[in-house]
Design a protein that fits this description.
286 residues, Thrombin, subunit H, glycoprotein, 6% helix
Length: 286
C-alpha cells in the first residue's frame, strides 16, 4: 500500500547555480484525493478522487454495457461482487474501464482493460447472498498514476462509524443509473438494525457482512453500484483509501431512511484475496 502511495509524488531535480553545490530533489505532491467527511443522496466526485474505482463492462463493440463497479487492488486485479461476474442478461464481464469520473468519458485519462480470468468465491451462494465476492485478472498490468491507483486492503477488521461508498448506480429506486461517478457518506448499522427490514428473507451474518446506510436521510448504494467499494480515507499512508466493504445487496427500494445496504466484509476474505492476487495458489476459476 505504501508503494502504491509513492505514485502520487513526482521527484524533480532542481539544478544549483552555485559552483560546487549539488542539485536538489524537489518532491511535487500530485495527490488528487479530497478527504471526504448513485449512489442515493450522493454528490459528484472530483477528477482523480477515487483512482481505484473501476466500471465493469459486458458487451463487445459500441455502445458498451456497464452494470457493476469494482476496485483495483493490485496492478492486475480488480475486486468486485460475485454476482457481477455473470449478471443475468449480460453474460460474463469482459472488460474494465478505469481513470474515469463519467461513463461516457473517453479522453486521455480513460483506460480500457480486457478481463483475462474470472475468480468466483467457491462458497458464493446466490440464493442466500453469502460470500458475494470475486476477482478479475486483467490481461495486462495497469500503468499506475495519480489517476489509476490500487486501493489498500484492511489488515484488521474495521467497522468505523462512517464510511464512503462510490459508484455509477441508480440515484434512486425508480431513477436511472448515474452518468457520473458519485460518492456518499454512510452510517454504520448494527446487525440487528440491518436485519429487521429484511425479515426472514435473508440472514445478515456478523463476520462476513457489514451494513451501512443513513439514520435520518435518504442515502444509500443502489442498483448498478454492486461490486463497488465502501472505503475510508487514510492519513497514513498518505493519499490512499482502505476498502472495508463492497456493495452486495439491499432493499428493493434503495435509499429508504433508517435502513442499510449490505456489504461484503473485505477483511473476512483477505486470505482468499491474497492467495489469488499475490501468492498465485490454486483457487477456483469460473
Amino acid at each position: 500500500c505504501r508503494e502504491y502511495g509513492k505514485h502520487v509524488y513526482d521527484d524533480v531535480t532542481v539544478p544549483s547555480y552555485v559552483f560546487g553545490e549539488k542539485p536538489t530533489i524537489k518532491r511535487i505532491d500530485k495527490c488528487m484525493h479530497k478527504a471526504v467527511s448513485l449512489i442515493v443522496g450522493g454528490e459528484r466526485v472530483t477528477d482523480g478522487e477515487f483512482p481505484h474505482m473501476a466500471l465493469l463492462g459486458y458487451a463487445d463493440g459500441e455502445p458498451r454495457d456497464y452494470a457493476c463497479g469494482g476496485s483495483l487492488v493490485s496492478p492486475q486485479f480488480v475486486l468486485t461482487a460475485a454476482h457481477c461476474l455473470y449478471p443475468r442478461g449480460y453474460g460474463a464481464v469482459k472488460f474494465v474501464k478505469m481513470g474515469i469520473i463519467s461513463r461516457l468519458q473517453n479522453d486521455g485519462n480513460s483506460h480500457l482493460f480486457n478481463v483475462d480470468q474470472i475468480f468466483k468465491h467457491p462458497e458464493y451462494d446466490p440464493k442466500k447472498l453469502t460470500n458475494d465476492i470475486g476477482l478479475l485478472k486483467l490481461d495486462t498490468f495497469v500503468p499506475l498514476s495519480e489517476r489509476i491507483l490500487p486501493i489498500c486492503l484492511p489488515q484488521l477488521s474495521l467497522t468505523p462509524a462512517k464510511a464512503v461508498a462510490s459508484g455509477f448506480g441508480k440515484t434512486g429506486a425508480t431513477e436511472s443509473a448515474s452518468q457520473d461517478l458519485l460518492k456518499v457518506t454512510l452510517d454504520r448499522f448494527s446487525q440487528e438494525a440491518c436485519q429487521e427490514p429484511f425479515g426472514t428473507r435473508v440472514t445478515i451474518t456478523n463476520d462476513s457482512m457489514i451494513c451501512y446506510g443513513h439514520h435520518s436521510e435518504s442515502k444509500d448504494s443502489c442498483n448498478g453500484d454492486s461490486g463497488g467499494p465502501l472505503q475510508i480515507y487514510n492519513n497514513d499512508p498518505y493519499c490512499t483509501y482502505t476498502q472495508i466493504g463492497l456493495v452486495s445487496f439491499g432493499l428493493r427500494k434503495c435509499g429508504t431512511i433508517g435502513t442499510a445496504g449490505v456489504y461484503a466484509n473485505v477483511y473476512h476474505y483477505l486470505d482468499w484475496i491474497e492467495n489469488i492476487v499475490w501468492h498465485n495458489k490454486s483457487m477456483e476459476v469460473s
